[in-house]
Design brief:
Belongs to the glucosamine/galactosamine-6-phosphate isomerase family. 6-phosphogluconolactonase subfamily. It comes from Intrasporangium calvum (strain ATCC 23552 / DSM 43043 / JCM 3097 / NBRC 12989 / NCIMB 10167 / NRRL B-3866 / 7 KIP). With 250 residues, this protein is α/β, with parallel strands linked by helices. The chain contains 6 helices and 9 strands, in the order E-H-E-H-E-E-H-H-E-E-E-H-E-H-E. The chain has helices spanning 19-41, 51-61, 93-99, 124-138, 191-194, 210-217; strands at residues 12-16, 44-48, 75-79, 81-83, 143-148, 173-176, 186-189, 197-204, 236-242. A 6-stranded parallel sheet has the order 1-9-8-5-2-3. Strands 4-7-6 form a 3-stranded antiparallel sheet. The protein is globular. Bound molecules: 6-phosphogluconic acid. 6-phosphogluconic acid binds at residues 49-54, 81, 83, 93, 149-151, 181.
């Protein structure tokens, strides 16, 4: 069953004048979304991402007005994908988020769920299994906010065009080998788990992303070709773009 079959709303597009204003506006939006989620269920669950914007939103978050209204100790943090590298490696998504100021938000470290690396488990498969177990134990049926970056090739999380990892079903996580973008070994949420989010936000900036954005939003695009075309939030899907990334949209 696809998100569309479940009646998920059509994606909404918001275009910002530049990358910084996009990150700042997304951070402000995230504060409100976390507050709303905490108001409903006590705890908010957010899925973070790597890439430049994935860290820029954290940097903006550390300075955004109203952030102190969020009870950060009741925010549970996940990652949509991770590079299979040891904890603290500069190329890990979580390290980049840490360096952007994640730890200064006042989160409860026991609720920050990092994907195990080769310093903890032997293989990407073991890491994917361990992460799936953590998700089963602590993950909400639906994440409150799922944040995704998009590659120029249209990849999302570590699900790449024409890559077998896209085919994983019946599991929330998948080990990825031979990623076309280095490093070759990664762990990713599957399409099925990416579909379990109330709000899904794509954060995309730069002219090199314009074709991927246009393709992802074109009706009928096959996710095998453009993985970013697939994830939909059950309540909202937002494409938060800068002008350059939105240049291919009519
Ligand atoms: O694991 C990776 O290789 C990156 O995390 C990658 O998936 C990134 O999120 C996108 O390419 C968007 O990156 P930007 O935000 O820099 O455009």
């Amino acid at each position: 069953m696809t998100a569309d079959d479940r009646g998920a709303p059509e994606p909404a597009v918001v275009i910002h004048p530049g990358k910084q204003s996009l990150a700042d506006a997304a951070a402000a939006r995230l504060v409100v979304a976390l507050l709303d989620a905490q108001g409903v269920s006590g705890e908010a669950q957010v899925v973070l991402t790597g890439g430049s914007l994935g860290s820029e939103i954290i940097r903006s978050l550390t300075g955004v007005l109203g952030r102190s209204a969020v009870d950060w100790r009741r925010v549970r943090v996940w990652w949509g994908d991770e590079r299979f590298l040891p904890r603290g490696h500069a190329d890990r998504n979580d390290t980049q988020n840490d360096e952007a100021g994640l730890s200064s938000l006042g989160l409860d470290a026991t609720k920050v769920h990092r994907v195990p690396g080769p310093d903890e488990v032997d293989t990407p498969e073991a890491s994917a299994d361990a992460y799936a177990e953590t998700l089963a134990r602590h993950g909400a049926a639906a994440f409150d906010v799922l944040i995704l970056g998009v590659g120029p090739d249209g990849h999302v999380a570590s699900l790449f065009p024409h890559h077998d990892a896209q085919r994983a079903t019946g599991t929330p996580t998948v080990a990825v080998h031979h990623s076309p973008k280095p490093p070759p070994e990664r762990v990713s949420l599957t399409f099925e788990r990416l579909a379990q989010a109330r709000e899904t936000w794509f954060l995309v900036a730069g002219e090199d992303k314009a074709d991927a954005v246009a393709a992802a939003l074109r009706p009928g695009t096959d996710r095998w070709d453009v993985p970013a075309s697939a994830p939909r939030g059950t309540e909202a899907t937002r494409w938060l773009l800068d002008t350059a990334a939105g240049a291919g949209l009519s």
